[in-house]
Amino acid sequence: MRPLTRVPSILICVETSTSWGRRITAGILEYARDHGPWHVHIEPLGPDEPLRKPEGVRLDGIIARVGSAALGDELRATGLPVVNVSSIRLPGYDFPRVIGSLEGTSRMAADLFRSRGFTHFGYVGNPDKDYVQTQFHAFEQVLGERGFACQFFNQLDRHAELIAWLKKLPKPVALLCWGPSVGRRVIDACLFAGISVPNDVAVLGSDYDELLSEASYPPQSGVRFAGEQIGGLAASILDGLMRGRRPERNHVEVDPLGVVEKLSTDTLAVPDKRMADVIRYILGHAHEPISVDDVLKANPMARRSLERRFRKMFGCSVSEQIRRLRINQARLLLAATNEPITLIAEKCGFASYTYLSRVFREATGLSPREFRSRSRAVALAPSTACRPSRAGSSRD
Q1: Which residue has the higher pLDDT, 204 or 54?
Q2: CA separation for the pair 343, 54 (Å, rounded)
Q3: Which of 264, 293, 304, 332 has its CA 20 to 30 A from that of 238?
């Protein structure tokens, strides 16, 4: 592998007006701190803006949201290594790509909605975007596997039609929206039409934005995008490309971290009062060391009747539902905090670190420690033997 004899200059072309781009950029910078040094230039381009390279700088590589053929052509013309972090599919442009898993987002959304008892579903997004179509079809497929259908509203520029569509939907209904901006439009339309959010319409964004998701009322729930990990993996691939090594895979998809729950989904769509009491107890106590026996103590009934009625209503067993809630919280805490994993196990209701580790690996394919490392963008560098030391690096 070709060694780097000077500090590389890297250009990041990712919009930073949303937490999506800021998280990716943070992951790249974290990789640079851990495996650099790199000299990083940030150009917050939108998907249709022309490439702007810093003057007087010799670039070595680029990480970009390649959202148009025009930008793709400009990047290709540079002759530099490029890694793409856009979900937009552009035929003919084979830059290595690292993106969030739309199928993984769809499964987390379906799990959340089913845990609240919903049986009616919809999706709202811009049909002109191929990645929106991809996510809708993934959501539709996940629901179809569980015996449910999903309606698609695709006229975002028509407020009156959105209101009419929302009024016609069977209630209560759960909606997955492409991002918090789309979710905001849905919530605004519901408020205008006198439709209760979340009791009649539960709204979940396909990404959680710390600013935009909190700006609406009620605040939006969202799937936590693994932007730091995507940025770190993209940086790792670029590091290898700059050293003359092609990546093992040209396309990598990263699962989201979990669901951040806010008021927009804080409801139950459960006509069976006994099962409503059961799920309400589980939601309130899953992060304590409870078992099915504790559920039965709080809601006395025959164990077989509980399991049968619960599975019919929510599509899983009582134990599976408790584990899902605990794993979701563990994923978020591992990614967002520096708390010891033993403490996280306790906070999430696991009896021990060993039990958390076993269940977590079954659910994610990773140990808690591996998941934390990847979510923090601490990707393995392509090579440490040929990297210049920080003290002895030559600089331009």
Answers
A1: 204
A2: 46
A3: 332
Lowest mean pLDDT among 159-168, 216-225, 229-238, 385-394: 385-394
CATH code of 172's domain? 3.40.50.2300
Do residue 115 and residue 205 come from a single domain? yes
> Do 313 and 370 sit in the same domain of this protein?
yes
Taking the CA atoms of 208, 100, 335 and 40 in sequence, report the sign of the dihedral they define: negative
- 224 forms beta bridges with 258
Q: What is the pLDDT of residues 229-248, one digit of tens each?
A: 999 999 999 999 999 999 98
Residue-range definition of the domain harbouring residue 58 = 9-99+227-254
CA dist., res. 64 & res. 76, Å (int): 12
User: Does residue 382 belong to any structural domain of this protein?
Assistant: no
If one counts the domains in the chain, the total is: 3
Query: What are 275-321's pLDDT values in tens digits?
Result: 999 999 999 999 999 999 999 999 999 999 999 999 999 999 999 99
